Amino acid sequence: MSQPEFERAFEIVRNTLFEEPIEDPGDPIACRMHDAFGVLDGVGHNCLGCNFAEITNGIDHCLSKIVNTNARIEFDFTDYIWWLYLFVERAEVLFEVIELPASYRSRTFYPFVTIRRWANFLKHPNFFVFVHHPKYFFEGDASFDETQFDFVVDTNFVRDNYGAEAKSRRGSVRAKLQNKNDIAVLFPNIIELTEEFCHCAYTIFELVERNEVYREVLSNVSTLEEYFAIADQPE
Q: C or N terminus of the chain, fewer CB within 10 Å?
């Protein structure tokens, strides 16, 4: 049932975060950061291009497995959101190091919050662990009928209740979930989430490529001079 959506997400990732052609993708576009830092001279090495390329390849590998297996959306979404979350965590470190303005960060990378909250929900389910046999759907699923359920765990609920600032609402969450039946989990629309994520990822690479100040700050903590010369030294 969910396979066509993941197939489309796979295409979006291949088209957006990889060099052409889609049938046989080349390097992830994260590798362009090597050019941005000017370390393709066979001497120095900047690790950011490699590290973000590795996570991009992980996302691609995850989607490849999903579209080639029988669909179980609760398992497939969990696998996929975790790989997106691993990318987001690395991006957040960059934001901290370059001191990206909070207003720009929250406005431009808003989808990262959605990814982080869903990852938190899956990692720290809290009182959801006391729910009896929940049903799982994606946003936009024609078979989903909200009136058939006592409560729906959706993106708004997860964003509001699965962040560090939500501890004061634990009692409300408990009342909605504890020992309840007829609960639905409405995961985000995979195609829309993937499009938003890829746009954010592309924006990060552009920030590094186009902003000389950010490149200098990041280079100081991620470029190892004489890397290849050191690696080639005999033991």
A: C
Q: Give me the average pLDDT of each 10-residue run along the chain (235 residues).
A: 83 92 80 75 74 95 93 94 97 94 94 96 94 96 95 95 73 90 96 98 92 88 58 45
Map residue 183 onto helix, strand or coil.
strand
Cα–Cα distance between 191 and 198 in angstroms, integer?
11
CA atoms within 13 A on the CB side of 225: 2
Spatial separation of the C-alpha atoms in residues 70 and 68, rounded to whole Å: 7
CB-based contact 223:38 (threshold 8 Å): no
pLDDT at position 25 is 74
What is the rounded CA–CA span in Å between residue 228 and residue 43?
Answer: 5
Position 230 scores a pLDDT of: 45
**Separation of alpha carbons 145 and 148, rounded Å:** 6
Q: Is 226 exposed, middle or buried (0-12, 13-18, 19+ CB in 10 A)?
A: exposed
pLDDT at 234: 43
Backbone CA torsion sign across 20, 25, 30, 34: negative
